[in-house]
């Protein structure tokens, strides 16, 4: 039942809610503005010098997308990125969950030290290890190979994965695992049949953060995947933009095609992503 005091509090908070709502709408519009300008640019002919703020409703020019596909080899690059991203993300989720399980359940001094080192690894910028990493990959014959790129992506994203999984696992009651153990389940059975199915929210979070990070990765990919047919989407768009610097429409079309797979994946996983981001925050 709503009391007079509740109505009074609601009326007092209404202006604050309106201000917050307006601020959120402005922030959303600010975030969407680059996509709108990119869309209007991609749908205009090179000779169309009209304002980029107005969509060309009558003369949509889709030839820019054909130029990006034929001249920029964008579809091949999207395929390379999709393969590396899917395999790297799946292995990062699996290895991260397996590594986080003992760290979350056995809070020994050694495990705490290991967790501290893992958190420290998150802070290391990838480019600081470029020279030794490039030398190691060259010695292993892993340059310009899918498996070499996948190993690098897994190694660079695994620390954050372990940190998020460990934080989430601490919120799962131990009684579930104890009951499974009493019923005769081994440790792997407890993990894969009891714990792992409960990790959907954090797995969605890790998958999105890892997947988007690998999809957009440029700094390492441009050095370890130098062959044009092996390039991922970010270096490929950079090279295409340099070659088509006088054709902004084709460059904008290539950028739109690159962002589409990530956008679709986020729309499907956003519910689990939000749950995973806030899980464990009260511990």
List descriptors:
283 residues; MetI-like fold; 2 domains; 12 helices; flat; MetI-like; transmembrane helix; MetI-like_sf; membrane; transmembrane
What does this 3D model show about the protein?
The structure is a single chain. Helix content is 74%, strand content 0%. It has helices at 4-42, 63-72, 74-105, 109-122, 130-140, 146-169, 174-182, 187-195, 200-215, 221-224, 233-243, 248-278. It folds into two domains: 13-45 and 52-60, no CATH class; 65-282, Orthogonal Bundle (MetI-like fold). The protein is mainly alpha-helical and 283 residues long. The chain is built from twelve helices and no strands.
User: What is the CATH architecture assignment of the largest domain?
Assistant: Orthogonal Bundle
CATH class descriptor of the largest domain: Mainly Alpha
Q: What Rg, in angstroms, do the CA atoms define?
A: 24 Å
Tally of strands: 0
CATH superfamily of the largest domain: MetI-like
Strand proportion: under 5%
Count of helical stretches: 12
Topology, please?
Elements: H1 4-42, H2 63-72, H3 74-105, H4 109-122, H5 130-140, H6 146-169, H7 174-182, H8 187-195, H9 200-215, H10 221-224, H11 233-243, H12 248-278
Helix pairs in contact: 1-12, 2-12, 3-6, 3-9, 3-11, 4-6, 6-9, 7-8, 9-12, 11-12
Keywords: Cell membrane, Membrane, Transmembrane, Transmembrane helix, Transport
Membrane topology: Multi-pass membrane protein
GO biological process, one term: transmembrane transport
How would you sum up this structure in a few lines?
The chain is mainly α.
């Amino acid at each position: 039942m709503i009391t007079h005091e509740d109505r009074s509090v609601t009326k007092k908070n209404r202006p604050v809610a309106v201000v917050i709502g307006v601020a959120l709408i402005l922030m959303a519009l600010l975030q969407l503005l680059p996509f709108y300008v990119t869309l209007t640019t991609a749908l205009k002919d090179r000779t169309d010098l009209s304002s980029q703020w107005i969509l060309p409703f009558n003369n949509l020019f889709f030839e820019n997308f054909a130029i990006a596909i034929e001249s920029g080899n964008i579809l091949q690059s999207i395929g390379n990125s999709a393969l590396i991203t899917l395999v790297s993300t799946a292995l990062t989720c699996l290895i991260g969950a397996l590594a986080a399980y003992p760290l979350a359940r056995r809070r020994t001094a050694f495990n705490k030290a290991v967790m501290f080192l893992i958190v420290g690894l998150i802070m290391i910028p990838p480019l600081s290890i470029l020279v030794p990493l490039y030398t190691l990959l060259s010695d292993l014959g892993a340059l310009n190979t899918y498996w070499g790129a996948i190993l690098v992506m897994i190694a660079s994203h695994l620390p954050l994965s372990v940190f998020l999984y460990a934080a989430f696992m601490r919120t799962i009651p131990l009684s579930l695992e104890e009951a499974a153990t009493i019923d005769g389940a081994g440790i792997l059975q407890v993990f894969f049949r009891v714990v792992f199915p409960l990790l959907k929210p954090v797995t969605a979070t890790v998958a999105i953060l890892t997947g988007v990070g690998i999809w957009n990765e440029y700094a390492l990919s441009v050095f370890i995947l130098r062959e044009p047919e092996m390039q991922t989407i970010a270096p490929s768009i950079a090279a295409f933009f340099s070659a088509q610097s006088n054709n902004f429409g084709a460059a904008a079309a290539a950028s739109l095609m690159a962002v589409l797979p990530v956008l679709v994946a986020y729309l499907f996983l956003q519910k689990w992503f939000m749950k995973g981001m806030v899980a464990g925050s009260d511990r």
